[in-house]
Amino acid sequence: MTIINRLDYRPFPEDPHNYKPNSRHCLVLDPVRPDGDYVKDLVLNFELLAPDEVIPVHTHTNEEVLIIDEGEGEAFYDEEWRPVGPGAVILVPPGTAHGFRNRSGSGLRLHAVFAGRVVGTRLLERSPAPGTENLPLPPPSLIDFRELAGGE
After folding, report:
1. How far is 73 from 65, CA to CA, in rounded Å?
2. What SS3 state is found at 65?
């Protein structure tokens, strides 16, 4: 069992397709133990989404649960944007288009739980970095969150 008492929020890596310069996130995985007694296939991503920033509409190869902790926003699900606020829980099956935007004028705190440490993602739209507005959508990607976090 692992207890994490403090989240270390960091800027998002630079990405011309998913530009969030004022937002922060914290990736949480159970540390690898030599005896193999650790949570292997759950990943949590905590986000502080800045005003007017978005999580572009995309799909994943894994199940995902999004939980709105604080603030107001809009979630794209079932082909439409819907208002969400504190306490909202969004259950996302694999391959389902979803996204999020903060139009509230203040910060928004949410977190995602992924079933699996390796997650495939396909962007269906972009949140382009300045000067990259005309780039095409990137190909689907596969991310091993443990590699990204520097573990196993």
Report:
1. 16
2. strand
pLDDT tens track of the chain, all 152 residues? Answer: 899 999 999 999 999 999 999 999 999 999 999 999 999 999 999 999 999 999 999 999 999 999 999 999 999 998 999 999 999 999 999 999 999 999 888 999 999 999 999 999 999 999 999 999 999 999 999 999 988 877 55
- 60 burial class (0-12, 13-18, 19+ CB within 10 angstroms)? buried
Q: Hey, what amino acid is at 96?
A: T
- Judge whether 53 and 128 are in contact, CB under 8 Å: no
What pTM value is reported for the model? 0.92
CB 146 within 8 A of CB 29: yes
Longest C-alpha distance within the chain, in Å? 49
